[in-house]
Specification:
Elements: H1 2-7, E1 54-69, E2 72-79, E3 88-91, E4 95-102, E5 113-114, E6 134-140, E7 145-150, H2 156-161, E8 165-171, E9 181-190, E10 200-202, H3 206-210, E11 216-219, E12 232-235, E13 239-248, E14 253-257, E15 262-266, E16 276-279, E17 281-284, E18 289-295, E19 300-306, H4 310-313, E20 317-323
Parallel strand pairs: 1-4, 2-10, 3-8, 9-13, 12-20
Antiparallel strand pairs: 1-2, 4-6, 5-7, 7-8, 9-11, 13-18, 14-17, 14-19, 15-16, 15-18, 19-20
């Protein structure tokens, strides 16, 4: 549990979310601060059926004041009240019916662009919705893989930076190899006028966004959000799979789990190409994704990072806690009174 103290500081489809918060005024109380972090365990399970079907996906775009870090909040723009948006899981050949509702109390127009779509704008043109409007389109899932989706309303980078991204998995006909645990992690950037560590309701900075100078790097929406109560959990001897994406909008990630080696990497999120074995760090572009599988051999706390390691200090970190018996054949070390180390 030492790593948690060192690095934790300041299921399906979720079809509804938290109501949007109202900004504070001098004569009104501060807005309620929502928990916008999507747990890494919040994803649908593998698809058992082998025949194509029609799958309905309901998205609600909501603008919510949520917790960014200890003592700091931010006006997030979300799909279904969380960051990232819900993970969508379909099978190749499925017909996907997407319904997008822009909440009536939104201040902005929103839409959704699925990278898994073959068609104009990935659905963005069809789903452009003013506050209070609902739009629908359908698409055929033609090609398997893990894909990003995001809002594509101008200024597109602004909508993405504020939290409007998620992932869709299109399973191949035979499905994916079975593992004991699956997790859903998406990296993003947040650009605030205020410096990292500031308290209160922080404001977005368009200048920093255009200059690609984020104050925060986040996994699933918040500063070191996948630590503490939202850390990932598994046991020695189990296999895990992480569906990892980068919403961005600007920065490429070097995804790495400190103290582990990926047994299999699905490059660029492709599930039809051969996997790459025995990989230390995988590069994922903004608007891109990957899948990593590995078996757990030794108990302890494993830190997930973007290996551009200055970003760890800006919030880009999570913890995978592994419980079980020691395995001295694989790893043994005498007690060390010094704290820290290991990146």
């Amino acid at each position: 549990m030492k790593a948690l103290a060192l690095f934790a500081t300041a299921a399906t489809l979720a079809l509804t979310g938290v109501a949007g918060a109202v900004a504070a005024t001098p004569d009104a109380p501060a807005p309620a601060v929502a928990d916008i972090v999507r747990p890494a365990t919040d994803l649908p399970g593998p698809i058992a059926r082998r025949a194509p079907a029609t799958v309905k996906v309901d998205l609600v775009t909501q603008e919510i004041v949520g917790k960014l870090a200890d003592g700091a909040s931010y006006k997030f723009w979300t799909f279904n009240g969380k960051v990232p948006g819900p993970m969508v899981r379909v099978r190749v050949g499925d017909t996907v019916e997407v319904t997008l509702k822009n909440a009536a109390d939104s201040e902005h127009m929103h839409n959704v662009d699925f990278h898994a779509v073959t068609g104009p704008g990935g659905g963005a043109v069809a789903t452009m919705a003013d506050p209070g409007e609902t739009k629908t389109f359908t698409f055929k899932a033609l090609q398997p893989g893990l894909y990003i989706y995001h809002c594509a309303t101008p200024m597109v980078a602004q909508h993405i930076a504020n939290g409007m991204y998620g992932a869709i998995l299109v399973e191949p006909e035979e499905g994916l190899p079975k593992v004991d645990h699956e997790f859903y992690v998406v990296q993003g950037e947040i650009y605030t006028d205020e410096a990292i560590g500031s308290k209160g309701l922080l404001n977005e900075s368009i200048e920093k966004l255009l200059n690609e100078q984020p104050e925060y790097y986040v996994f699933n929406g918040g500063f070191k959000a996948l630590t503490g109560e939202k850390a990932l959990h598994a046991k020695v001897g189990e296999t895990v799979r992480i569906f990892f994406g980068v919403g961005g909008p600007n920065k490429t990630s070097s995804f790495h789990v400190i103290g582990e080696i990926f047994d299999h990497v699905y490059p660029y999120g492709s599930v039809t190409s051969p996997t790459i074995k025995d990989v230390q760090t995988v590069t994922v572009a903004p608007g891109g994704a990957t899948i990593v599988d590995f078996k757990l051999e030794v108990p302890g706390n494993y830190i997930m990072v973007d290996h551009a390691l200055s970003r760890l200090e800006r919030g880009g970190a999570g913890i995978l806690t592994v419980e079980g018996p020691a395995n001295p054949d694989v790893f043994t070390a005498p007690p060390n009174p010094h704290k820290g180390g290991g990146h």
